[in-house]
Design goal:
Number of strands of chain A: 15
Domain Pyrimidine/purine nucleotide 5'-monophosphate nucleosidase C-terminal (chains A, B, C, D): 341-460
Number of domains of chain A: 3
CATH class of the largest domain in chain A: Alpha Beta
Oligomer: homotetramer
Structural class of chain A: alpha/beta
Number of helices of chain A: 17
EC number (chains A, B, C, D): 3.2.2.4
CATH topology of the largest domain in chain A: Rossmann fold
Shape of chain A: globular
InterPro entries (chains A, B, C, D): LOG_fam, LOG_family_nucleotidases, PpnN, PpnN-like_sf, PpnN_C, PpnN_N
Pfam family, one (chains A, B, C, D): DUF4478
Largest sheet of chain A: 7 strands, parallel
Organism (chains A, B, C, D): Lysobacter auxotrophicus
Strand order of the largest sheet of chain A: 10-9-8-7-11-12-13
């Protein structure tokens, strides 16, 4: 599958040629040309995503770190007799074992190529799609997921796990235990595909699936180009999808997952919670079953109390009906999730909705439109009481999304370096609560930042 | 897989619900809506193609016959929990065994739905593709074949078999023997997917593949909406593709096949021969290996002499270097084809061309552009000596294509009924030879026409 | 899988080394040694059976013909890194395609080795088994079939087809049609694995299974060393079992098959009918469902009338309740068989009997004990009215068995050459009827004997 | 697969019916009868082994504990339509998830039934085998392993891991890391199938195999009735084999494994080391490559020093050439093992020995004959300098074997309770060293004994 020649550089690297196995990924001449195009930035994007895949497991979440460590890294896609070939130059040796690339890493590389090729042809500037309507965006999400071959008509069993990439040892072990209990019950796992709470459930489920002799397992990682460098997919992930932006990534989670478990996390997790609650609180979704469980080890109880309080304050007490908090009981989490998914199954059958894509859930355009966190956009967020819960949730989601960008995404970090922290305006109590929440994340070291954390935002009551 | 309720009509019919197995075919809401759209003619097209699949094996090649026999037949595509569901109303009972649809027929139905949905979205009036350039058309052919999941990076082994749907018992047995010898050598079969020479090789190969324990076999049928009714796919076909028109169908044969065998046939076969020779005679393809064998039982020797003479007269003696005539020797046919494909393999590796799609072969726009055989278009064909062989071949191909349409395609038959026979103009010797060839086809009963054959053309020297 | 070097001899032969695929057949040092043992006759037996497999499709049914045509043929079994290796010396070229052995033939060779090794160790002279009791013999049959890996817990669907190896073209086509109809209904085929009625149903079922996309098909051939040379297995057979003698072969048919179809045949077929009816007529089996259909094309109607008459005369009219005669209606044969097998299924579930081995059917020792057709043994058969039907059937079975041996088995032929025809004694009407039946077989050319048939028996009233 | 009804007892239990999947395990009437036979002790043996499988993961290694906890537990094997059915009565609820048995546990139960049935028929008192010769015993080991379907002709890749069931957290994590590095290199794992060092490598390999997309993995557990209760197999084990006694179990390890890794352990591990070195030190095995690595985390360095010293003292310095000690370097362990196995592969090819069973290694009868550790047998062990190393090793092995029995096997424990500790005689220095080693095992808590350890032996210089 690969032949590798070790090179001598500061960090060990290898050159390698990689061929796909099974040959499902077949590209046209056009698509290969597009991926090689330097002028459009496509080649650079490919290089960055590939590097993230190849440095899975490294400690930093600074997206620029990998590139500084492997400055000579390059990737080329070629057409060949049996289809595609990937040439790697000065690639991180950590992705190889005795000169052979880890098979799972190779698969992720081919997934990167597949998704970027599709995005370039189908969702790029000359896309035939209408990406300004709700239907058009949902159809694009569907198209990309179908092209990634992860829409299977199996019984509902996909549990999305959200949570931090930087969590305590105690919390990490807990996520493994929950994954184990889910796996024993035949449930598959979908996460944002980085370390921490995104990896633990997959590891636990792997052991449980082995014991249950489940071989057609799905460990799905859904990411986007802005986040992949900070949260590089670990190779247990056997289905990687790169959505074009965070909003489509969130929609993919919600339309594919049959239930969601939230582990302790940081700002990104908060963004995800707000996104989901904002949608579930819409009247149109009032009767839609959607199991949602917040859980962590006993030590995480205060964390969820604070989150719960924040939700009550901003979205109202009614919002809490949409989730359940379970502390320190992996078995119970899995039981409740199983039961919830059974209801989802019944509902889909009754509604003639598909098992593999939740067409019924209503996601309005305000949650779908890409939010670009400029200082202007952050400043005009409308964080005041009196708005409809789902509208306020949409803006709160954007606020957290901007802070994630300021913390770990390249564009965002550049903006903060240039113009200083974002200003976020809103009602005093909401701003205080928001600030408290964010400070707690820092104290609990839920951001894997080198050195002392310098906030990228400033709240203004 | 299906539940069926027998109905009482003149010809026995059943109602049935059919579900796909394996669930590879996943449609979006948009696509299902498109297929159900009566206003665009899409629903009617779906109904006609489905009926062709369901009446495989019937005797007539009048495309309207099936519809007259099953006037109440209808089909509906639904979205459901596990994906797609097809509802059949008053469907021909011949596709069922004890009330259960034959599994292969069901697969072909799902292939029809898949290809028509793709064509509607991707190659229809609002297509994002440029279908006026060589590259654009080739990319469309590639896209449709990839979507049909038949571009596999296996070793070259696909033999295209052309020949008549109406052949003698002797010739039919011979096509089975050739298919058997090909199958013993691990070769797969691709045809136009009707009866006669399109079915025999697949049957022979099926027995040989069973003896060789080949399980991943490919019996590919490539058709188009205009011809499917006359040449309905038999269910040994395990990969059916419906190309949007005859020109893309021919391009699909030529880009996917690693070699071509021509059995005795009628006008359609002549069209195919002219198409292929026209392309192979181009200077750009001079060095391209492409095994091409004309073969039949001893009784078919005179047939191939006449074809050979016609080719020499029209395209010149050089054209005969591109093919080999083997009479009455299936073993030898298979050996020569195997040897030829080994050369194709070496050439692809040397040229870094893919095994599964012949990007290198040069097919000019004149062979790609859809030819609509109106009386005007037929009348202006330029069939004179002195033209470049491949240009003359292109017009000869169109002449045959027009006659096929006049014989068995709905549109063409309507035109002939309304305006009388086509007039074909050309040099006297060429016109005589053409007429003699066509008359021989009639005498040899190579057209499965009810009653006496009334020619749909008139040659004018 | 094999590398072959063509040699020059009178009939073309090759030398080859063959390796198993999948590696299920693993032999011990002891077993390999036993197979190579010349002193015990085991090596000779192996050579004869292997030659039969390699000459499948040849015209003669003289067991000695193949050995005269390939006098230098030899086979050796070796132990090697990945397990077994078979070396063939001067093997018939007809089993190879372009120097490669036909994969199905190779599989049959490994089956021969597997079964002879098992028989040598487990059923040979130092066998630990008690082969003198009903239970002991049945257990041995079970052990050999299990070792051959054909006892699968699938739903009952195995139809045993009996009938002649030498039948008319018309009858052969009919057996293919019946096989096709059985195959469309998901039924598998088991025969004695020679040509004629033993091959046609498998060929028909192969095409039908392809159309129904059945991939885990079973074409089981059950033979024994005495008959394999005369009825060499065709390579569609994907499960070959060599039972040690004719009685265990018959028991294997009856315990594995869920229903039996009898096509026109000769003496061997008559033996099979008598064996089965003898068993089914026992009181112990009175309530056991066992679908049994005699069928052939319209032209075979007189044949079955004669058989029917013979049965009524010898076993009484009641015996006819155990079978159904269907003439010229393959569809109806398949429907009736399907319905019969559904009843078998219900009965097994009710009786807690296994689907894959009919433990319930009572087969008395008189049908199990090997019958050696010496002149003495043949002379003392007691063919008189007044005996219990199943006892008379047992002796009639032996009579036919002896005639088969005299016709086509090496030992039997030798005896006839030495001592003249067998004498068979019995009541006058029975003897006349028997003789008429046997003469009809000869007239209808149901014995593939070279030259004029010289009867190996003489009836004495 | 199972339907379960929870019962109320002290420890939670369930009743369940279990059906095999895939149906490879097909029993004869005789075999089922044998397994149900109470008179021969077979039923009791089945019950004990089944209970061990069902209580995998429990804390105690007292073989009698499980039976006291589940006094009402019973198991019945039934014959049924699709083959076998297992009925469990009052089975430990810990083997079930939400009332469904863990699939891996069910597979282990069927393995228990399969092996006990085979042993009863083939190795029992009326066995046809000669179990008093080296060849006879080796053939029996081969027969049982083949019947368990684990002799596959794949490339050599099976690493046997020995080590304690009771090890420190630090050591356990290390065994997982070694397993991970082995798994990354495509190596499979075989252990004695209990907890600790027998489980860690499998867990690590499971994660690595998932990353390398290896699906046909082998986690082989080889046990015997005397030890299974103390070291119950964890359900990651996907191939369980129950050998009839410790000597055949050791022979199975040595003939199947392509290399052996020894982690820190207790008396049992010492027995295994002595067994293996005794064999490898024979002149007949001098040229046989057999990679053998002793390894543990840094904290285990003193442990291996002590072992090393004991080996030098008893077997001489030459014995140390047969193994390599690697401390705290999992990557290096895996690399060295990979390299060693490559040499094994070359040697087998050169010697025409099979990959899956090491026929070449010479194991003398003295290592094969079952040793029954009575007080008499222990007292006459000849532990003096001057004996040939492999003979001394054989007696030292027996000494350790006896102590294991006295510690954790039912028979042995009963003897100690009745007659007091074993007396072991030998040269003073050897006895001191032995005693020191055993005391160190106790101090390091390498025996999972409840309460204070009371030695079951007394050394006598």
């Amino acid at each position: 599958m690969s032949t590798a020649i070790p090179l001598e550089t500061t960090l060990p690297t290898v050159n390698a040629r990689i061929y796909p196995k099974g040959g499902l990924d077949v590209l046209s001449h056009n698509e290969v040309a597009r991926l090689r195009d330097v002028s459009t930035g496509m080649h650079d994007l490919l290089r960055r995503c590939a590097l993230a895949v190849l440095t899975s497991g490294s400690a930093s979440d600074d997206p620029r770190a990998a590139r500084e460590l492997y400055p000579e890294f390059d990737i080329e896609v070629h057409q060949q007799d049996r289809g595609m070939r990937i040439d790697l130059h000065n690639a991180p040796a950590m992705a190889f074992v005795d000169g052979e690339i880890i098979r799972g890493v190779a698969e992720l590389l081919f997934a990167v190529v597949r998704d970027l090729a599709y995005t370039a042809m189908d969702l790029g500037p000359d896309s035939p799609r209408d990406l300004d309507t709700t239907d058009g965006i949902t159809d694009a999400v569907f198209g990309l997921l179908r092209n990634a071959r992860i829409l299977h008509p199996t019984d509902p069993n996909l549990v999305v796990c959200w949570g931090g990439h930087s969590i305590s040892r105690d919390e990490y072990v807990y996520t493994k235990q929950v994954g184990y209990e889910l796996g024993l019950r035949g449930l598959d796992i979908c996460t944002g595909c980085g370390p921490g709470a995104m990896k633990g459930p997959m590891k636990g489920a792997t052991i449980a699936h082995a014991k249950q002799r489940r071989f057609k397992t799905r460990y799905i990682g859904i990411t986007e180009p802005g986040i992949i460098a900070a949260e590089s997919p670990n190779p247990i992930v056997n289905h990687l999808v790169i959505m074009p932006d965070i909003e489509k990534r969130l929609e993919a989670f919600v339309r594919m997952g049959h239930g969601i478990i939230v582990f302790p996390g940081g700002v990104g997790t908060a963004e995800e919670i707000l996104y989901l609650l904002g949608i579930l609180l819409r009247e149109e979704n009032a009767n839609l079953p959607f199991p949602l469980i917040f859980t962590g080890p006993a030590s995480a109880a205060p964390y969820f109390e604070q989150i719960d309080k924040f939700i009550r304050l901003t979205l109202g007490d009614d919002a809490t009906k949409r989730y359940e908090i379970i502390v320190g009981d992996p078995d119970q989490v899995a039981k409740r999730m199983s039961a919830g998914i059974r209801k989802v199954r019944e509902h889909r059958i009754a509604q003639k909705d598909s098992f593999f894509f939740n067409w019924s859930i209503d996601i309005p355009l305000t949650f779908q439109r890409p939010f670009v966190p400029t200082h202007e956009a952050m400043a005009v967020l409308d964080l005041h009481h009196g708005r409809k819960p789902h509208e306020l949730a949409a803006d709160l989601r954007r606020a957290f999304s901007g802070i994630v960008a300021g913390n770990v995404k390249e564009d965002g970090m550049r903006r903060i370096e240039e113009f200083g922290p974002f200003e976020i305006h809103g009602d005093a109590d909401m701003m205080q609560s928001l600030d408290a929440l964010l400070r707690a994340f820092v104290e609990q070291r839920r951001m894997k930042i080198a050195g002392e954390y310098k906030p990228c935002y400033r709240v203004v009551a």
